[in-house]
Structures are given as structure tokens and as C-alpha cells.
Amino acid sequence: MRAARLHGPRDLRVDDVPAPSAGPGEVLLRPLFTGLCGSDLHMWHGGTGMSAGPLTLGHEFSAEVVEVGPDVDDPRVAAGQLRPGALVSVEPMWTCGHCGPCRAGSYNLCRNMVWHGLSDRAGALAELTVVRPGMVHVLPEGLDAVQGALIEPLAVAHHAVGRCGDIAGGSALVLGAGPVGLAAALDLVARGVERLVVTEPSKVRRDAVSTVLAAVGAGTASVVDPTETDPAELARELTKGEGVDCVVDAAGVEPAFQSGLSALRPGGTIVTVATYLKPVSLHPLLTMLSEIDVRASLGYRGDFPPVVDLMAAGAFPIDGWVRQVPLADVAEAFELLDAGADIKLLVDAGA
Ligand SMILES: [Zn+2]
Ligand SMILES: [Zn+2]
User: Which ligand has its closest atom nearest to the C-alpha of 41?
Assistant: First the structure.
């Protein structure tokens, strides 16, 4: 079968590899659409984790169940839900189940985590892939494979917004409108945020987030270029000088982080969900005097089911920010992603 494997830095090739099969306690899937993200790009640049040989990438995906292997202990099999032909979205985490965080239910913090198609395990940029049944979420009628491939990045945003606490009727600032920032803005709207500011230097991304916000009836949200408008000043203006309740940092650069801190009301929360490549400066006196909560958000836990429900309810329109490319062109797709020309690229494994 065909599989897009990373051989080293910037060296992704569509190889012919042996097809996997479902072992005991496993499910064999045919990936349909697979999203590419900043984490894939990070791998692609660094070629890290390649000691075990070329790695098939792909962790954000929808798939069709091909085969449920032997000894799968899952009530959805008997109920006829987890069966060949079922359309699914995959939570791409191989967790150990026995470390401290796993025992406490915080499986996204598993100390022995393997990210499917990212840190190990042949991923979804292939014609077949193997996962555990617990990673599989069967999609309801009405959702399609393109929507299914977006559940993962939406879940990242949903988890981050959840770290804001109850935001209904409140105010928020989202820093950065890449896929996660755009998703966070939609998620905040779905949770009933009343005043919303989104900052993004790229015009293409500002236009995209404005379009989806208008589509969900949040056209009055402010979408601004942080190099022209001071986000903190605007946030205070919109909140009678108070500052916003929560900042979701999906930008990952120092100026954004600093403007986020100064946009907060006393007692507010900033959630970092961006992957920072450099440290930032933080004066603890500043956060202490206003009792600012600086929180982080990693992946998701328990976020797939609510995101699937929100998607089915129309909270996440996909027009204007998602583009499809065939698996045969995946190497070129990484170049495009690196150039920042697209917001979300989905690889069609069947093309
Ligand atoms: Zn990702
Ligand atoms: Zn664990």
C-alpha cells in the first residue's frame, strides 16, 4: 500500500510498504482525510524521532473501519456501531493506562504517551492504519469524512477554551487565527461568549476567521491585525476598561503573550495552547498583583464527543479555511504548509 513516510528533515516520500493487519485488541482503518498541522511541520523540519526508521505521518484523520481484530472488548461491537464500513474520527493517542495521570483520568498527560503518526506508530497518511478501539469515535449520521478529519484540531481548541472556565456571557481574546485559533473562536461562540476579539497578522487568515464567525452569527466579533491595533487596548475598550475574562494564546510568540497578559481583567485566565519554540519573559509580580492565572492546554481528554456534537449542530463551518490535496501530492503539500499559504490542508488518501 502507499504510505507517506518521513525519511529525514524535509524528506517525505510516498513509499510502497506492506499493508498492516489488525492484531488482537486492534482495529484496522482506511484513512479517508488527514489534516496536516504545525506538529507535522515540526517533525518534517527536524526529522526528529527517526531512530526507528522512516515514520508514516498523519494524526488528524477520519477513516472507515475495515476490520475489527480479535479480542476487541468494546460494547460498540455487539451494538453494531463499531463495524466494518463505519465512519470514524480518531483520537490519536496511545496511552499507557497505568501511570499517575492515566490513573487520574488525565490521559492527555500520560507519561508514556505515543502520538499516532507523530511520535511513533505508522500514521494516517497511508491507505491503511491500525489503532486501538478506545481511540475510535464513531461519527453520527449527517457528518462526513471531511468534517471527521477536523474533529482532532477542533478538540485541541475545545480543550483550551475549556481551560478558561465558564465563559458564557463573558469576554475573550484569541491570539492567532491558524486552525486552532480559528477553532477556539468558534468554540467560544458556541459556549456563549459575548465579546470576542481575535488577532491575526495574516489577512488571509483574518478574512477566513471573519467568514466563519459571520456564518455562526458572530459577525460583530472584532478581528484585527495586531501590528496595527493594540489588542489589549481594544479588549479594554470593549469591556468598559476592565479587560477580558480569558485569553486563548494560539500564536506562540512573545509579543502576543505580552499583549494577552495586559488584555486580561484582574483574576482573568490566559491559556497557552500554541507550541512555543522560545521562552517568554513573565514577571510574577504582574500576575500576582492581578491574580492572573497562566494556564496551559495539551491536546484533549474527553473533548471528542462534545466536539462531534457541536459539529453536528453546525457550530464549526468549514467553508473558506479547508483545502484538499491528494496523497500523491503530499510532499508538495508540506512545502505549501511551510510557506503558510493555507490554513488547513486535508490529504485525501484515496486520491
Ligand atoms: Zn495536529
Ligand atoms: Zn499513562
Answer: 1
